[in-house]
Fold this sequence. Notes:
CATH topology: Pemi-like Protein 1, Chain: D
Structural class: alpha+beta
Distance between the termini: 55 Å
Strand order of the largest sheet: 1-2
Mean pLDDT: 87
Helix content: 40-55%
Largest sheet: 2 strands, antiparallel
Order of helices and strands: EEHEEHH
Oligomer: single chain
Number of helices: 3
Low-confidence stretches: none
Amino acid sequence: MKLKITQIGNSAGVVLPKELLARLRLEKGDELFVTETPDGIKLAAYDPEFEQQLEVADAVMRRRRNLLRNLADN
């Protein structure tokens, strides 16, 4: 898909077509995350850093399952 950079006030921007918004499951006001990769730029509807934090939290919760269960019971 080819997008054109346009003037928006004193800035420049790209208008995302409806079809692309639908594929990304985004709506007006949602956040779009930009990540630089070896192949170029990646646009995603999720924050990869937050996903990594969730993976760490999941690992901690698995290791400390009994402790967390005891805390929840008290």
